[in-house]
Amino acid sequence: MLGSGSQTQGAQSKQSIWFRMHIDMPLLIGLLVLMAVGLMVIYSAGGQEKALVIRQVTRLGIGLIVMLVVAQINPMSYQRWALPVFTVGVAMLVGVLLFGHVGKGAQRWLDLGFMKFQPSEVMKLAVPLMVAWFVARQPLPPRKRDLFVGAILVLMPTLLIAKQPDLGTSLLISASGIFVLFLAGASWRLIGFFGAAIAAFVPVLWFFLMHNYQRQRVLTFLNPESDPLGSGYHIIQSKIAIGSGGLWGKGWCHGTQSQLEFLPERHTDFIFAVFSEEFGLVGVLALLAIYLFIIVRGLMIAAQAQAAFSRLLAGSIVLTFFVYVFVNIGMVSGLLPVVGVPLPLVSYGGTSMVTLMAGFGILMAIHTHRRLIAT
Amino acid sequence: MMRRRVAIHDTHAESRLFTRRALVSLIVVVGMLLLLVFNLYHLQVKSFSTYQTRSNDNRIRLLPIAPNRGLIYDRNGVLLAENRPVFSLELVPEEVDDLGQTVADLAELLPITLEEQEKFLESSRFSRRFKRLPLKARLNEEQVAIFSVNQHRFPGVYIEARPTRYYPYGDVLTHVLGFVAKINRKDLQRIEEAGDLANYKATRDIGKQGIEKYYERFLHGQVGYREVEVNNRGRIIRTLSVQEPVAGQDLFLNIDINLQLLAHQALAGSRGAIVAMDARDGGVLAMVSAPSYDPNLFVHGISSKDYRELLESKDRPLINRATQGTYPPASTIKPHMALLALEEYIVTPSTRIWDPGWYQPPNVNRRFRDWKRWGHGWVDMYHAIEQSCDTYYYELAHKLGIDKISDFMTKFGWGEYSGIDIHEESRGNMPSRGWKRARYNQPWYLGDTISVGIGQGYWTTTPIQLASATAIFANQGKHYVPRVLKSFQTSTGTLAVPADERPPVVLKQEKNWRPVIDAMYGVNHKITGTAHKVFSDAWYESAGKTGTAQVIGIAEDEEYDEEKIDERHRDNAMYMGYAPLNDPRIVLSVAVENAGGGSANAAPIARRLMDYYMNNTSLLPEFKPEF
Q1: What structural domains does chain B harbor?
Q2: What is the pLDDT of residue B521?
Q3: B311 interfaces chain A, CB cutoff of 8 Å
Q4: Which residue of A135, A191, A235, A260 to mutate against B (max B Cβ within 10 Å)?
Q5: Mutual orientation of helices A351-368 and A308-332 as an angle, nearest 10°?
Q6: Could you tell me the pTM of the whole model?
Q7: Looking at B331, B418, B589, B599, which residue is catalytic?
Q8: What pLDDT is recorded for position A7?
Q9: Kind plus residue range of the DSSP H or E element containing B18
């Protein structure tokens, strides 16, 4: 259904001016709607301050430009860049650990003199790029050896970022790599084995690799009421905000939890709580529908891609996008422990948004450069 | 395995493989989205009311508003206790940029001591956020004006006007009204036990003594609430609703402030107590205990130095002598003794007893001396009361025995709480065999009975008891409980407090009242009466009895010489009486410590008060309360 339905649509849209500009209209509309929702909620959560909204508009503008620029590049040329970008990225991650700038108790930034730079953002695209390129060289489904190398390629940056420590990003990056391997056709048995290995790894993670504050987050997640004023405060206030929104919400700019500042990090990681408080379950369903629309559209683009590399890359980008959504909403509503993952394209903030938009640019490029690829 | 391997790229197979995997992914995505939706449905629909409540608990605070304390007036509507705004300088640390600098700047403007500054800075460290903290208490009007002019320089600094109790008559009414002061831990415990904690949420002061304490329930009122919305730091954003407090009820006392002032002035410089009661209902017209002190000191928190001075003063000003001072009643109880003797057929009014100047019971080797060394000669009941013959009563007491005396006197309220509406009260002591056994583990001796016969020995009384027992005489048996409260304000009007009666004293022969009352009339109005000099020119008829109480025992053969004795060992002057003789209105009891004889030192005070009351235009003391 997915494949056959979209084939005709792609053929029609190739005629349009948008197609020639390498823009996928349905995807763009989905993204713009999300951005508009985001700006509305930021305006409310930021205490009706216009400056905040203007700054976010600027960032979104930059994001859109980046997306457009990336969309113009032939996706097959990315294959050439996969290895050098990945290598430099890993080198920079090592550099961050050695000379990185400490902010908020974690080493995430590399000071290049004229600007601060977060190499992990580059890795969000470099890892799927690298893994997709690596496995797509051979016929699919990949051999066990290739899968093994692919797994190592995923694990390396993941561990380096987890060490910074940035649990959220390392989670996203490992997911993006694993998605490539899954979409490439890794056997179910191997996937089962892999899952078991992760389960076995959990105690090791808990006792040897996690920082105290990370353990605290997990403990708080399991029982937020145990420390209502300390680390449980975020999640308790967030659940109160969501729950008190009810079916229809308290109305735009009328959420008491956000307007009276009981909710922490209202316009960044916890913006979903503000949204659900003010727009209720009905608003939430609409928002999730937009996300689902973007994901479906993205998977369609991936399925229609002609080269295996493009398919894997596109599919990984889309599924990683969903991981953002799921992890963010899951943590804000108390299903998952608090990890620093923003609600994509809605949360205030630039860095990860620009990376996401670059990803969507790749999707558009994959979709609109099909004609130019030899069949 | 699941799939067959293909040697080289099989585009179609790869595409199909991808599509399958993508479909699996999409199904998982939709499943996970449903999981999210299910959880959100649970939060927003199933647990909606729980979270709505918690959200409101977050943002809505109830701020209690203290009710205004009820005012206290005298019987004629003169204000005795009011509420005045007291200004204090308060500061919200969160609203001030540089706390230390602001305090220093304020100290330049207003006389804030270093001690006050340090105390404030200390307390600011531990206070709740956005709470106003007092920096300087009790600003005078000039200081308020100085600050108001400079207020723009001090954001976050406020002048708070709090209604605070003020007693315009100062030390004149201290022991009647008592005072309010800051609620302490013990008060709090009592309030909690009464289940009244919520009502006192905003209240700072509570009645500590006197009327203020006894009628705390009436005076306090009902707390109000302001429902406000606060943000996460506790800062008030807006007021949602207000429930106004209900002010306490205003009280009207039986006290006549002019009579009170007169009594206060009469005891100026002495130690003692005066009680004036309305004979017709037991209303307390005046009640003075001297020396007194300014209750306003306690309202603002008395300094420990001042308090120690009051506490350690030899004059014991903190004691309410009118209700707590226990004095030997001395000869003031002779009418009661005479009445008992008539009831028991020991004597008739005209029965005469020989007084050689002493009484010696048979087979006792001790003489009990009369105050008149050379004796009164032949004495009947009238003579014995008018001239206060001791020997006569020694013999009556001897013949009556302590059991009958004790039983009878208890009916007049001796040794019992008078029931006045003030908590600070002593019972005095009406001795009996059982009491002495319990108290000293000793048998009762004849000598004890004989001392009791003239109101000495183990018998002690409070001025309020004496007044109450006199009122029973004035009413020929009717027993009104002394009441300070006359009426109080309710929402529908003024409600009078009904007179409180105890079982009356019923005589076996009602006719026995008359001769004793006639004799009491003689005390004041017959030429031989001990108070005749004082009352001879009165335009009304009255009844009374003087008393002179020994404070130390005088040996049998020793002479009482006022000059030689330490001031504090001199006799107490006592007086009880009422006027007018028929249809009595005012009852008085007077006790002046170490003043000497009752006829010369207590009766004149009673005369002055009776004069005022009988005339209402007599000389009033100069007194202007500070307003």
Answers
A1: 63-253 (3.90.1310.10), 257-489+502-619 (3.40.710.10)
A2: 95
A3: no
A4: A260
A5: 150
A6: 0.73
A7: B331
A8: 45
A9: helix B11-41
SS3 category, B5? coil
A101 — pLDDT class (breaks 50, 70, 90): low
Tokens of A21: 């500009």
- Mutation for testing the B interface, residue in A187, A236, A244 having most B CBs under 10 Å: A244
Total Cβ atoms within 10 A of residue A105:
8
Half-sphere CA count of B539, side-chain side, radius 13 A: 6
Question: Helix (H, G, I), strand (E, B), or coil: what is residue B242?
Answer: strand
Q: Does B60 touch chain A (CB under 8 A)?
A: no
Q: Tell me the Cα Rg of chain A.
A: 21
- B72 within 8 A of B421, measured Cβ to Cβ: no
Q: How does strand B572-579 pair with strand B586-592?
A: antiparallel
- How far apart (Å, rounded) are the C-alpha atoms in residues B419 and B164? 30
Report pLDDT digits (tens) over B526-554. 999 999 999 988 999 999 999 999 886 55
Distance from CA of B27 to the nearest CA of A (A): 11
What are the phi and psi torsion angles at B548 (to 5°)? -130, 110
The 10 Å Cβ neighbour count of residue B564 is 8
DSSP letter string, B62-85: EEEEPPPPPPEE-TT--EEEEEEE
Report the distance separating Cα A288 and Cα A283, nearest Å.
9
How far are the Cα atoms of A86, B80, B467 from residue B175, in angstroms, in the given order? 92, 13, 17
End-to-end CA distance of chain A: 23
Q: Omega into A141 within 30° of 0, i.e. cis?
A: yes
Helices (H), B368-527: 381-386, 390-400, 402-411, 433-440, 446-452, 463-474, 513-525
Contacts of residue A285 in chain B, CB cutoff 8 Å?
37
- What φ, ψ does residue B444 adopt, rounded to 5°? -85, 130
Q: Cβ neighbours of residue B47 under 8 Å, at least 6 residues apart?
A: A243
* Residue B221 · residue B245 · CB < 8 Å: yes
Q: Is A208 or B29 the better-scoring residue by pLDDT? A: B29
Q: Between the CA of residue A73 and those of A353, A361, A365, B81, B349, what are the distances in Å?
A: 20, 9, 6, 91, 136
- What is the Cα–Cα distance from B464 to B212, expressed in whole angstroms? 19
Q: Name beta bridge partners: A190.
A: none
Distance, in Å, from the CA atom of B392 to the CA atom of B389, rounded to the nearest integer, reads: 6
Q: Report the C-alpha gap between B407 and B430 in whole angstroms.
A: 9
Q: What is the pLDDT of residue A66?
A: 92
B60-65 vs B586-592, strand pairing mode: unpaired
CB count in 10 Å sphere of residue B439: 11
Please tell me the distance from the alpha carbon of residue B56 to that of residue B40, in angstroms, as a whole number: 20
Helix (H) or strand (E) holding B182: strand B180-182
Extract the tokens encoding B332: 């003031």
A205 secondary structure, DSSP code: I
Alpha-carbon gap, residue B583 to A341, rounded angstroms: 95
Q: What is the pLDDT of residues A44-73, one digit of tens each?
A: 998 888 899 999 999 999 999 999 999 999
CA distances from residue B557 to A170, B312, B392, B398 in whole angstroms, order as listed = 112, 37, 20, 22
Please indicate whether, in this complex, the C-beta atoms of A281 and B39 are within 8 angstroms of each other: no
B137 to B88, B113, B120, B140, B155: CA distances (angstroms): 4, 11, 11, 10, 19
Report how far residue A70's alpha carbon sits from residue A361's, in angstroms, rounded to the nearest whole number: 5
Chain A residues within 8 A of B19 when measuring between CB atoms: 2-3, 303
* Helix, coil or strand: residue A320: helix
Positions in chain B short of pLDDT 50: 1-6, 555, 617-627
